[in-house]
């Protein structure tokens, strides 16, 4: 299959191209599209065959459910059993935007799309190209991140092409994703509502709207013995090809420890990498050094993390050490993804 890559710089000017992409979805094909979080691999959410194709193209286990993307609030009632007041409140506050809600599904949504579950994940993205594409596609686009399973989520069309060229009909190239990390997922089918994946919409923001909101402990620790509630959370995700280890502790101890390990790696003829902040990146000796930006700027780290992980792959790095970027709010989402990329390999110094 030849994958068409179509640049879209303006949703209105590119209406003909978006309508062509929409036709691909309606005919049961697949098209990747930009959203403000990461690129999505879209198919018709109401067509079981399309969802099967998504799993196949990604190489993703079919028990890992897809997020259904909508463009208008009026589209919601048809795909859920009912719209609880909590969903209305969150939609009013955070949609369109980087928040996915888990709700009881209606019969319209095939089990292929929900990985066999009776619940459905729904999001209304804010990216103008995404919204126009969803409308052109008939209003319900199932889309996981547009990467091959296990690879970092793609934040630009070029990365989608690296993973999926020849496996899907089209890639809409809308430039760099503005946020760079996947949506927050909140489960509204449980009481109190529970965060299944942290993101830009933080626990604090959700609590302001809903009161009590639980944060799933499995998000931050690899070894709680609990089964994660979002099926996708049990798979190793976002991983670079090299070994990635996160080091926690006082700044000076971290630098000393990592530099020792990097030197040892070089002696073993390994190509080494370091992930640090602007303030400390100059203190390390590694073959490939990447800064996530200023330590206090969690949004910059979120935006750059997946690009950095892919760049280590491009550079053939075998051994990567990372500083830890703990903090409140968006830092929690950054650390969640970094720890998953590291397969929860953490050293406390
Ligand atoms: P991705 O589309 O790659 O961002 O992954 C979607 C994430 O949403 C996965 O981690 C899924 O496990 C999670 N998800 C989707 N639908 C549901 C659902 N019905 N219940 C719980 N988690 C879900
Ligand atoms: Mg994904």
Overview in brief:
The chain is α/β, with parallel strands linked by helices. The chain has 10 helices and 16 strands.
Q: How would you characterize this protein structure?
A:
With 349 residues, this protein is α/β, with parallel strands linked by helices. It contains 10 helices and 16 strands. The protein has helices spanning 15-26, 48-58, 76-79, 85-94, 128-136, 157-164, 203-210, 251-267, 298-314, 330-341, and strands at residues 4-7, 31-33, 40-44, 67-69, 99-104, 119-123, 141-142, 170-173, 184-187, 194-197, 214-215, 243-248, 272-276, 288-291, 319-323, 346-348. An 11-stranded mixed beta sheet has the order 1-8-2-3-7-4-6-5-9-10-11, sandwiched between helices. A hairpin with a 6-residue loop joins strand 2 (31-33) and strand 3 (40-44). Helix 1 (15-26) crosses helix 5 and helix 9 (298-314) packs parallel to helix 10. The chain is globular. Residues 218-224 have low confidence and may be disordered. Adenosine monophosphate (AMP) is lined by residues 64-65, 67, 102, 114, 117, 119-121, 144-145, 182, 185, 196, 230-233.
Low-confidence stretches: 218-224
Bulk shape: globular
Determine Rg (CA atoms, Å): 20 Å
Strand arrangement, major sheet: 1-8-2-3-7-4-6-5-9-10-11
Number of helices: 10
Q: Which percent range fits the helix content?
A: 25-40%
Bound ligands: adenosine monophosphate, magnesium ion
Strand content: 15-25%
Instruction: Give the topology string: H per helix, E per strand.
Output: EHEEHEHHEEHEHEEEHEEHEEHEHE
Question: First CA to last CA: what distance?
Answer: 50 Å
Sheet with most strands: 11 strands, mixed
């Amino acid at each position: 299959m030849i994958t068409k890559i179509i640049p879209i710089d303006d949703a209105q000017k590119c209406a003909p191209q978006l309508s062509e992409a929409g036709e691909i979805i309606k005919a049961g094909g697949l098209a990747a599209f930009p959203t403000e979080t990461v690129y999505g691999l879209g198919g018709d959410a109401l067509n079981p065959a399309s969802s099967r194709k998504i799993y196949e193209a990604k190489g993703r286990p079919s028990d890992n459910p897809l997020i259904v993307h909508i463009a208008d609030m009026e589209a919601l009632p048809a795909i859920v059993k009912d719209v609880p007041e909590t969903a209305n409140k969150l939609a009013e506050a955070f949609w369109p935007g980087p928040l996915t809600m888990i709700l009881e599904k209606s019969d319209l949504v095939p089990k292929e799309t929900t990985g066999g579950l009776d619940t459905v994940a729904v999001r209304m993205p804010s990216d103008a190209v995404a919204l126009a594409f969803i409308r052109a596609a008939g209003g319900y686009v199932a889309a996981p991140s547009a990467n091959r399973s296990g690879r970092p989520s793609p934040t630009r069309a070029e990365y989608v092409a690296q993973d999926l060229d020849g496996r899907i009909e089209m890639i809409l190239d809308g430039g760099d994703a503005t946020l760079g990390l996947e949506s927050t997922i909140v489960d509204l089918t449980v009481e109190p509502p529970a965060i299944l994946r942290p993101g830009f919409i933080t626990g604090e923001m959700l609590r302001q709207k809903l009161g009590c909101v639980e944060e799933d402990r499995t998000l931050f620790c690899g070894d709680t013995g609990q089964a994660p509630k979002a099926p996708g959370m049990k798979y190793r995700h976002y991983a670079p090809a090299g070994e990635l280890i996160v080091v926690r502790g006082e700044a000076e101890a971290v630098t000393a420890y990592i530099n020792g390990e990097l030197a040892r790696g070089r002696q073993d003829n390994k190509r080494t990498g370091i992930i640090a902040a602007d303030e400390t990146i100059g203190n390390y000796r590694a073959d490939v050094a990447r800064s996530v930006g200023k330590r206090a700027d969690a949004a910059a780290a979120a935006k750059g993390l997946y690009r950095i992980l892919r760049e280590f792959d491009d550079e053939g790095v075998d051994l990567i050490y990372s500083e830890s970027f703990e903090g409140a709010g968006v830092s929690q989402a950054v650390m969640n993804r970094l720890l998953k990329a590291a397969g929860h390999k953490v050293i406390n110094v």
